[in-house]
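Try this one yourself first.
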């Protein structure tokens, strides 16, 4: 019986993760308010993304809102807690982002920040 509860609990966590990621991908600018700080922290702290490739990250989280390429790295940013007007992101106002530093096509650091 205990083993059955563990298996059921494992599937509930996986279903929660799938729903969270689907909502995250659907809310591409954060205007729908599906992208929250709690979800960004869950992605950073609970998903095993360190060392994963850019393709893996994009498949998991969707297309980033911003990509900045530097000599040996790139930074992917996903916006959340945005302020929108008629589903248009207003970048002159405060917002937050989940940021991933990628070097040699592997995630090296993940941060959550806000203006």
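Now uncover the answer:
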């Amino acid at each position: 019986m205990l083993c059955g509860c563990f298996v059921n609990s494992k599937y509930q966590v996986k279903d929660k993760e799938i729903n969270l990621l689907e909502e995250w991908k659907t809310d591409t600018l954060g205007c729908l308010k599906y992208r929250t700080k709690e979800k960004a922290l869950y992605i950073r702290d609970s998903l095993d993304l360190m060392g994963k490739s850019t393709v893996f990250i994009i498949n998991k989280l969707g297309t980033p809102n911003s990509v900045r390429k530097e000599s040996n790295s790139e930074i992917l940013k996903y916006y959340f807690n945005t302020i929108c007007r008629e589903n248009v992101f207003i970048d002159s106002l405060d917002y937050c982002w989940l940021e991933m530093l990628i070097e040699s096509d592997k995630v090296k650091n993940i941060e959550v920040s806000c203006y």
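Discussion: The longest strand covers residues 106-114. The two ends are 49 Å apart (CA to CA).
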